Amino acid sequence: MMTFIKSSTLRVKRLSSKPDAGSFWGGVRAIDAAIALAPVLTALVCIGIGRYSVSVPETVRALLAPLSGQEMDPLTMSVIWGIRLPRIVLALLVGGGLSVAGASFQALFSNPLATPDTLGVATGASFGAAVALLFHADLLAVQVCAMVCGFSALLVTTSISRQGGNNSIVMVVLAGIVVSAVFQAFLSLVQYLANPEDTLPTITYWLLGSMAKANFKSLLRGAPFIVAGMALLFSLRWRLNVLSLQEDEAKSLGINVKNTRLAVMAASTMVTAAGISLCGQVGWIGLLVPHMSRMIYGGDNRRVIPASICLGGALLVLIDTIARGATAAEIPVSVLTAIIGAPFFILLLRKTGGARL
Amino acid sequence: MIFSVEDGSFSFKDHRVLRDIDFSVSSGQVLSVLGPNGVGKTTLLRCMMGFLKWDSGATYIDGREFGTMKHDEIWKKIAYVPQSKNSFLSFTAEEMVLMGRTAHLRTFAQPSAADRKIALASMEQVGITRLRHKKCNELSGGELQMVLIARALSASPELLVLDEPESNLDFKNQLIVLETISKLSKESGIAAIVNTHYPAHALKISDMALILTLSGESFHGPTEKIVSEANMCEAFDVRVLIHDVAFEDRMIKNVIPLSVTQRA
Predict the structure, then answer these.
(1) What is the pLDDT of residues A75-117, one digit of tens each?
(2) What is the DSSP string of A153-173?
């Protein structure tokens, strides 16, 4: 929800400051409005779904109750505010975050297959977080540890793939697979060393990916990293276009390629690692959503980045709602994203030729 | 503006590629860089624009050394037209041209309506307004080359650097590209440095020429003097005939390759 508010206020500012800036956004077409509203509408509907179901109007009343001072059923209030809202906000942030990280990595490496997962960032961050969990570290330490290991994994991947000067699509993906495999092995080692009575279940359940334990306290520690990373990527979206060109070309357009790359890598890693620390490894979103956005908007990251944030948030809210609502026992989110994401991705590729993969 | 290279030398590992390169180009002038395959024409461009570091010597803009200038300061004056290669992201021609404005934008800024106007004006200047909404990876080689030239122009540069802009193009598109470069230098006073494989093209559009040879020697001077039968033989090992053809009221120089000369 936060991300939606941010992008919409920016849009309003542009429209009001320059009279002809409206046409610069291509006007606000129906599809733009639908995408911008998707996270809010999905959240409003999904928040009421569950064993204790709440209608949409009542959800709105409950959400506005602290402001309006309206008397509400205490059970409704506690379900909406205490249980479901933090979970929905977490899904919005993580979904938007992983999508924008994927879109940025794809632009940065000029590679349709670059995502937090394929580059080894996700596995690196998982390993970092697992190590911290092994030592019963608090959430802040888990996040920092995840970020450091995620970023190291990314640096290793890029340095392997850059050997010989060219950064080909295949080399990046191969290097990512190798780095992922190594960190996966380290991760298994951590699980092997973990105490089967307490830390092993914690690590295992966390790895499967779940939003169930979301609360405002943990959100308060993780959300700032995700929001800051997303904001940085959002404001660098024009430079992401330039970064996707050949290196000499990008330099000749007047950007500092090295620093901009580092900033994008750091921001994307920060978003990914913070998301992983909060709810485990959620795959596929970072590949699926940017491709969906590009099929709608083409290559221009000025549109693809905001669209990825909105669509990613909405999609993960939807998937998480299915995860908690479809069966009596909860299905791990990462299982669902793969089951839903993979066929959907194949369908998209078949239908459109993959927006020029 | 005067753009110059003084005593530029560069080696790849032990192999000396460029030796004591000296030249300068001022506003409205066109310099052609000629030489056989593998002699280091692209390396010369990359060195003089700072993508590779000179072993010795330096590049200057108006007497100021490149190394002492800020990144965006340089790229507001120079624009580079690389050999076209598509990115995986499919930008429209207009978005691609708009990227030329990046050097004029602050880090977190987005191009404004004014930037877009400049981009559209440069597209009009080279006659590709009709391509505006087309995707770059659906354009022909000639069209993409013109998009890249328009992108370079939208930076409002004083010098264009073009790396074999007319290679891989057909007859007509070669002429369009060459005439665009000529027109820009004559009418807008934009200097140009052009790598080319064709001596006839150098004679057609350039005031100055620089010929690189595999022995490391280089010839630099007015095109008509430098692109000579003797120098062609020296640089390319090809015997050529250069003759004047009268057409309407002007003389056109033609370069006819005759035979490969054997070197002892």
Answers:
(1) 999 999 999 999 999 999 999 999 999 999 999 998 888 999 9
(2) HHHHHHHHHTTTS---HHHHH
In-domain check, residue B240: no
Q: Could you tell me the pTM of the whole model?
A: 0.90
User: Which homologous superfamily does the CATH classification assign to the domain defined by A2-15+27-352?
Assistant: ABC transporter involved in vitamin B12 uptake, BtuC (1.10.3470.10)
CATH number at residue B203: 3.40.50.300
pLDDT at A71 over 90: no
Q: How far apart are CA A335 and CA A16, in angstroms?
A: 45
CB-based contact B110 A237, cutoff 8 Å: yes
The domain limits of chain A are: 2-15+27-352
Interface test with A, best of B89, B139, B162 (most A CBs within 10 A): B89
Q: For residues A244, A247, A248 and A250, what is the CA-based torsion angle, rounded to 10 degrees?
A: 40
Contacts of B109 in chain A (CB under 8 A): 238
Q: What ipTM goes with this model?
A: 0.92
Give which of B74, B88, B122 to mutate to test A binding, by max A Cβ within 10 Å. Answer: B88
Contacts of A236 in chain B (CB under 8 A): 107-108
Is B22 inside any structural domain?
Answer: yes
Give per-residue pLDDT as tens, B75-84.
Answer: 999 999 998 7
Tell me the residue range of the domain where B176 lies: 2-227
Angle, nearest 10°, between helix axes A285-297 and A333-352? 30
Element (H, E) at B80: strand B78-81
Domain count, chain B: 1
Question: Nearest 5°: CA angle at A197, between A196 and A199?
Answer: 70
Does residue A153 contact residue A183 with C-beta atoms inside 8 Å?
yes
Q: Does any CB of chain A come closer than 8 Å to the CB of residue B132?
A: no
Q: What is the mean pLDDT of residues A5-17?
A: 39
Q: Please give the Cα distance from A107 to A113 (Å, whole number).
A: 10
| CB contacts, 8 Å: A299 with chain B | 87, 89-91, 95
CB contact under 8 A, B46 and A248: yes
Is there a contact between A254 and B82 if contact means CB atoms under 8 Å apart? no
Specify if B171 maps to a domain: yes
* A252: chain B residues, CB-CB within 8 Å: 49, 75, 78-80, 82
Q: Is residue B132 situated within a structural domain? A: yes
Write out pLDDT tens, residues B4-41. Answer: 999 999 998 888 889 999 999 999 999 999 999 989 99
A242:B102 CB<8 A: yes
